[in-house]
Recover the amino acids of this structure.
């Protein structure tokens, strides 16, 4: 490892960078090269304990701050993020292999947007509501344990942290180890913001150790977790003993619904983007493309033309698609592509193996399957890779059935020439978010899942509300 590569051997507790309780270190791997890009310490349960202690102490005063004081800190966070946005983009590229163009468009600005949205949410939210003889007061829930995934590192960290700060909560944050570079950078920004000691704490380490200790800890009142279903369910079980409130943002298998009469040339490129951007590693990816049977051939041909022109390669250059995050993720995706072939889906483009000339990093061939039936593995399970499954349907009723025949219910898309019909279809989808004739996300709207996609909502007013307790003060004295 070159000496210029960062070594992250400290954790952030009570306003200071301090040594972790262990000296165990892990290598960080650049997915574009397979080479080590840095090293990171793996803390343990003792470190969680120290962080929780600091956060509990800080809660005594931070919970009593006014909206204006919190907005002051959030503005400072936004300003610092804006100043260092170029560094964030570079860090995300090294962490997860997201191409520069995509970092410019999404990973960089999205973090800033979520901080600003938390400010708007705090301005908007009513913290005291008179009702009958009672005053309903919403108070910060306490110490929050924020556990993040690696696939949208800046967006997730900024959203979770700014929401907690807006709610008046203090924080123990655990980033995904795979996105250490970006997370450390954002922690440095929070240091500059001048928050009171102990309001923001960050413990580095494995989920099975640090994340598990957070789930068990009696001093944490709320866990906000983004990640896989298996880990989400485990956290729910582990945190049950201490009766924590939970926000779980889990997986998805969202439908991209193409209605009869949709303009193929306009819509097919969007269908490709929503499943392939970020190398398919988005919880809200539209990974099931549901199209009218008599449009399938034209639609698939148009999707194929887009994919054929994709530049897959070095994310620091002009690639459309970089690698996937890790070798483990690469292998999982290969297994799914093979399952698609074995179960009889028609391989239109892509397939198993690495794209020619890209043997070093964890590159996947962008892949399209057609004639997919919704019961196939590739239509039921979240692949988290650049793999589209095109599912033909005979009637719009059947299309809605297909969309809803999933254990997940996170997101969805509806494209059609009749906007009203498209909206009616959107209302019948059992998901927490649906985009109609657009793929641009509104990050001020609530985000979260029906069914196995999760519990609770993030973003905007709804995200803040989830981190508040509700108190009724019954003013009986008024009646005397
Ligand atoms: P993951 O393995 O569940 O990891 C997510 C986080 O949980 C990481 O920080 C991980 O730590 C930690 N963790 C692992 N085991 C834990 C345990 N026993 N207790 C507590 N924490 C633990 O998820 P992933 O595979 O990295 O991420 C991809 C998944 O996230 C996909 O399923 C995707 O759909 C979902 N996701 C959902 C949303 C949403 O908003 N709904 C957004 C993005 C991603 P380490 O990895 O550092 O060890
Ligand atoms: Mg994982």
């Amino acid at each position: 490892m070159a000496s210029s590569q960062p070594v992250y051997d400290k954790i952030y507790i009570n306003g200071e960078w301090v040594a972790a309780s262990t000296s165990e270190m892990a290598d960080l791997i650049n997915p574009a090269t397979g080479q080590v890009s840095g090293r990171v310490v793996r803390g343990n349960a003792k470190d969680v304990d120290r962080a929780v202690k600091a956060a509990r102490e800080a809660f005594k005063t931070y919970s009593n701050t006014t909206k204006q004081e919190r907005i002051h800190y959030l503005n400072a966070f936004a300003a610092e993020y804006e100043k260092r946005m170029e560094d964030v983009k570079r860090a995300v590229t090294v962490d997860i292999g997201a191409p520069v163009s995509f970092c410019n468009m999404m990973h960089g600005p999205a973090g800033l947007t979520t901080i600003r949205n938390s400010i708007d949410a705090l301005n908007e939210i009513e913290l005291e509501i008179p009702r009958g003889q009672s005053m309903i007061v919403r108070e910060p829930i306490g110490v929050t344990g924020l556990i993040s995934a690696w696939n949208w590192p800046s967006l997730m960290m900024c959203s979770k942290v700014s929401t907690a700060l807006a709610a008046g909560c203090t924080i123990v944050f655990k980033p995904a180890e795979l996105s250490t570079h970006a997370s450390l950078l954002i922690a440095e920004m929070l240091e500059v913001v001048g928050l009171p000691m102990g309001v923001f704490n960050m413990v580095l380490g494995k989920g099975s150790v640090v994340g598990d200790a957070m789930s068990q800890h009696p001093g944490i009142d709320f866990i906000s977790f983004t990640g896989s279903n298996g880990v989400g369910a485990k956290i729910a079980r582990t945190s049950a003993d201490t009766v924590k409130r939970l926000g779980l943002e889990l997986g998805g298998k969202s439908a991209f619904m193409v209605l009869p009469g949709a303009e193929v040339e306009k819509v097919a490129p969007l269908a490709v983007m929503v499943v392939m951007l970020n190398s398919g590693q988005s919880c809200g990816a539209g990974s099931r493309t549901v199209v009218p049977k008599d449009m399938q051939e034209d639609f698939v041909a148009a999707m194929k033309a887009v994919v054929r022109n994709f530049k897959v390669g070095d994310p620091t250059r002009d690639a459309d698609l970089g690698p996937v995050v890790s070798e483990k993720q690469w292998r999982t995706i290969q297994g799914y592509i093979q399952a698609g072939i074995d179960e009889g889906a028609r391989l239109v483009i892509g397939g198993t193996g690495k794209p020619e000339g890209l043997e070093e990093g964890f590159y996947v061939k962008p892949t399209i399957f057609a004639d997919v039936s919704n019961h196939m593995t590739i239509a039921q399970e979240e692949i988290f890779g650049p793999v589209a499954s095109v599912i033909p349907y005979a009637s719009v009723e059947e299309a809605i059935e297909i969309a809803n025949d999933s254990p997940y219910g996170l997101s969805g898309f509806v494209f059609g020439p009749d906007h009203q019909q498209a909206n009616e279809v959107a209302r019948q989808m059992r998901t927490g978010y649906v985009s109609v004739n657009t793929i641009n996300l509104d990050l001020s709207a609530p985000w979260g899942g029906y069914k196995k996609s999760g519990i609770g909502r993030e973003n905007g007013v709804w995200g803040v509300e989830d981190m508040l307790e509700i108190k009724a003060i019954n003013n009986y004295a008024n009646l005397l």
In short: Residues 100-124 form the longest helix (25 residues). The mean pLDDT is 97.
